[in-house]
Write a structure and sequence with these properties.
2 copies of one chain form a homodimer. With 433 residues, chain A is of the alpha+beta class. In chain A, 51% of the residues lie in helices and 11% in strands. Chain A has a 5-stranded antiparallel sheet, sandwiched between helices. Chains A, B: Keywords: ATP-binding, Kinase, Nucleotide-binding, Transferase.
């Protein structure tokens, strides 16, 4: 469905909903009303639960069930209308969700309705799911998390790449998402640029982190490193990405995992999604010391976080290898040159050379994603919830050091286990402040 | 001007011109008629001179001057209507020409008129210019060629990249050219895929090259190498490329150089344009032995070809470095992190790390471009004009060996002088057949 078609339909205009008008709205959507078990707004309850920066999120409940209504606002909610943001991001989110749903529907909320005019998506109300980040702060483990995320990453990234897609379809889709300029610009600025100079929106735990934050801004190797990652972000049209895959974009129960909020979707480097998730596991790891009631209380939990990072990569890699063998239908590594010519070995060598490049990208992007959460505009609750600023800064400076190393030495680490070693070594360091 | 707007205008339809109707057509274009010095078809002379595979090319002369009319045909001319090809390529060619003209107008034909409906461009008739490839076969030197081409490459590639372009403009432009699917597919198939398996359109000097051509198809390292270059071709949206920059796309006089025919334009890796030109210089180099009347007669001319390749790269590199310093206005390597923070050194390190990557790409793409001209569908006149098949094959097998080495060992050669050394060593090899 074209944006223009929708947004001009019937001369109607966008309006932001509230807890009353959203009920009237869903009452008029047949499929949604059916799910709620009523067409009468008076039989519904609605509440606004958005804790993000960019959107309104309503939960609407009826006698038969509940749905989530996510509506884009025309500005960054946190900052107000001084920072406008295009409503079209709901269109990109919907397009990303439907593409992910073709391969991993059980890892997403069920999708009920898209309204381009009102920049709004109606989807499953996930319950009893909770945001993964909050559970990691609470020290909870999820036995299937790594497997679910590794498979989700491999399935969505492989199927959204030239290894699988028809070439014309991939180019057309890349062109569609190339229009998601403003959300890419948020990443380009806030992740890759502003933390590395004296930008007005930067913030950090002051004065404890003043020294390390300033040091970063005059660290030539890290600046070149992060610009090389920005270069890959802007030029490597490798696969359709989620684009913002941190632990706040994942909802979990003891047995289930769902990925939400792909409004930053575009065709970019696979390592960006993988690195984003790893970065947030490492941030959680370094935050654990700040959440301990007794020394070393969270030690084994920290090890579980590192193990989860290791398993995300290994499951991703194994799943990607299987898809490479079984569903490689795109223009890259055509079977005519390899399997059909009796040379499966050549294809396997190509695969692992490719995965080596994805890993290097993931390491570099993980570094960039860690740094920006410590000295840029947007921080993570893992750290922010550590009340004592000295204690918080002690955690943050270690995470910052790891982020720097990943950016500068991204070719040094040949496998995911090297990253765990690095994290442990940095955690044991003393006198960093 | 949107394609759809034009092609639907007034219910008119595309028609292929002939030497009569093309005169009537240009008579109706005021600016063109003015240039010809007449509005009367009877006062014009027209001839069809297209020697390419895809288009009609007319020269129309009047009492006041002459123009070239280049019209796309809806099929590959060489093969006939069994191989359809979209007329929209004239639209991409026009869009590429106008973008190149913003920075290098004196290296292009002057542009007079674009007609999307008839897939037609009217441009300057270049005279006394001749196609560079024919002059290289004839053993002629062009003192300014390397400088002109190095500057052209740097100016067009730098200004068509995220180093210079506004990010929204770059993304929109990338989306526009992403639609040039069919011409990219020709490259994807004929350059990167078909020469490496038993594809029906492949041809080579038989039976002399049967062994080397078959060996290539079971050469695991070269197949992985060429697929890694295809991966970069399809995913590296680095800059707006010419897309087909061989020595048949360059017209020269003793003092002038013009680049024509960018209908394969799209956002791809800078190294592809550079590598294409270098590859054709190397093909010319290996063909020289086949054009000699006496042994070693063309030795110094061969050295001039290698020197030209060296100078193309060094002029490109120097010019790119100047543009990096003076016109770096895009989102990459923002000045706020470098020059504005007193760190020009960091920016310079970033530049040279970047150029190292472009060089590696250029080497790999040069290898792919050489191989496809020897054992794929489309060959080069440099070799085809060597009448004796044994003598031709002796030249071709050396060029094939060089292409293979560039694909497999593309990280081995640290600078352009290494490529000259390699070419000389291979030329001296004996008993390759």
């Amino acid at each position: 469905m074209a944006r223009s078609e929708e947004s001009l339909a019937g001369g109607r205009a966008y309006r932001a909903f509230d807890v009353d008008s959203v009920k009237e709205y869903v009452a008029g959507q047949e499929e949604v009303a059916e799910r709620l078990g009523t067409k009468t707004p008076g039989e519904m309850r609605a509440r606004e639960v958005g804790d993000g920066n960019l959107n309104l999120v309503f939960i609407v409940e009826g006698p038969g069930g509940a749905v989530v209504v996510k509506q884009a606002l025309p500005y960054v909610r946190l900052v107000g209308d001084s920072w406008p943001l295009p409503l079209e991001r709901a269109y990109f989110e919907w397009n990303a969700l439907t593409r992910q749903a073709a391969h991993q529907p059980h890892r997403l909320p069920r999708l009920f309705h898209f309204d381009a005019l009102n920049a709004l998506i109606v989807m499953e109300y996930l319950t009893p799911h909770v945001i993964l980040r909050k559970e990691l702060i609470a020290g909870k483990r999820f036995d299937h998390l790594a497997e679910h995320m590794g498979i989700f990453l491999a399935e969505t990234l492989f199927h959204g790449s030239d290894f699988h897609l028809d070439k014309a379809k991939k180019k057309a889709d890349m062109a569609l998402f190339a229009d998601n300029v403003e959300l890419c610009a948020i990443t380009e600025n806030l992740v890759f640029t502003e933390p590395y100079f004296d930008a007005p929106l930067n913030r950090w735990t002051r004065p404890q982190l003043d020294g390390p934050a300033r040091a970063l801004q005059s660290d030539r190797a890290v600046k070149v490193g992060v610009q090389e990652m920005l270069y890959r972000f802007t030029t490597k049209s490798e696969a359709l990405l989620h684009g913002d895959l941190h632990t706040g974009s994942v909802m979990v129960t003891g047995s289930d995992t769902r990925v939400i909020d792909p409004e930053f979707a575009f065709y970019g480097p696979m390592g960006f999604d993988i690195g984003a998730f790893l970065a947030n596991l490492f941030l959680a790891y370094f935050a654990q010391d700040g959440h301990e009631a007794r020394p070393d209380e969270r030690h084994t939990y920290g090890e579980w976080l590192l193990e989860t990072a290791e398993n995300v990569w290994s499951v991703f890699s194994e799943t990607f290898a299987r898809l490479w063998r079984e569903e490689r239908t795109g223009i890259l590594y055509a079977r005519a040159l390899f399997e059909d010519a009796g040379d499966e070995t050549g294809a396997t060598i190509g695969l692992h050379r490719f995965l080596g490049g994805v890993f290097e990208d993931a390491v570099g992007f993980a570094g960039a994603k860690m740094v920006r959460r410590l000295v840029g505009l947007a921080h993570v609750e893992d750290m922010e919830s550590i009340g004592d600023p000295d204690r918080r800064a002690a955690c943050e400076v270690k995470a910052l050091l790891m982020g720097r190393e990943l950016l500068v030495n991204r070719t040094t680490f040949g496998d995911i286990y090297g990253l765990s070693c690095l994290a442990r070594a940095i955690r044991r360091e003393r006198n960093l402040l």
